[in-house]
Amino acid sequence: MTYCAKPSACNRLVCCIALAFALILPATGSAEEGQPANDEALAASIVQKADQIRFPAEGFEVGVTITTTTAGEPADARKYRVLSKGNENTVVMTTEPASERGQILLMKGRDLWMFLPAVSQPVRLPVAQRLTGVVANGDLARANLAGDYKPQLLRAEKIDGEPMYVLELIAVDRSVTYHRVLYWVRQSNYWPHKAEFYSLSDRLLKTCLYQKFERQAGRVRPTRLVMQDALRMDEESVLEYADMRLRELPDKVFTKDYLKRLE
């Protein structure tokens, strides 16, 4: 048997090696595909960056066409003009069909009202109520996933060879459009890829696919969203965003008293 002449030096060497492995393993383990990661700051950062890809944080205007198809029925197309500022204030104006022109949704924070030309006062609406087809009021009027949900990074996986973050988003309270969202975001550029929306009873309601990335309002964004109804498999709504541009929007635009002045 061979004995170490300097046991204290050997012990120090062993401790240094053990400490080095302890520092390296946590840093690399969560990056492996399929491994769970619970870093709240990282999860929040991913959702915030994906939000910035989807829509500008500044004031902007965009036209939205929603086409809904259901098996055995003619396609239904509707058009909207959206004004939004800071992810907390949104006005949605119906422009087509002509019979609904003049209807306006006002979203302030998580409070939603509808203005009808024939009604003197705005009507309070739930954000989860359907606007048209598969699309809920909140889908069009509020797009602040970072502010509405608490995210957790579940794992990493590949779709068609593209590395994705897979996150679970839990609503901060019941005023949010959906109770839970599973969210796939590209690791390379934070482009949103897919989202699954769940009810309070954890039933899958719909799936959204983010497609046709094009440059609008200063950066590349998804301009086509395909929403598929999980309850009625033959129903689908496609949202197409066009002519998005940054715009200075005063706070008074997002008030109930101002709605009648919008054209």
Which structural traits does this protein have?
single chain; alpha+beta; outer membrane lipoprotein receptor (LolB), chain A
Short structural summary:
The chain is of the alpha+beta class and 263 residues long.
What does this structure look like?
- It is a single chain.
- It is built from 4 helices and 15 strands.
- Residues 1-37 have low confidence and may be disordered.
- With 263 residues, the protein is an alpha+beta fold.
- It has one domain (40-261): outer membrane lipoprotein receptor (LolB), chain A (Clam), CATH 2.50.20.
- The protein has a 13-stranded antiparallel beta sheet with strand order 6-5-4-3-2-1-15-14-13-12-11-10-9. Strands 7-8 form a two-stranded antiparallel sheet.
Helices and strands, with pairings:
Elements: H1 7-29, H2 40-54, E1 60-70, E2 76-85, E3 89-96, E4 104-108, E5 111-115, E6 123-124, E7 130-132, E8 135-136, H3 137-141, H4 145-148, E9 149-159, E10 162-171, E11 180-186, E12 192-198, E13 204-216, E14 219-229, E15 235-246
Antiparallel strand pairs: 1-2, 1-15, 2-3, 3-4, 4-5, 5-6, 7-8, 9-10, 10-11, 11-12, 12-13, 13-14, 14-15
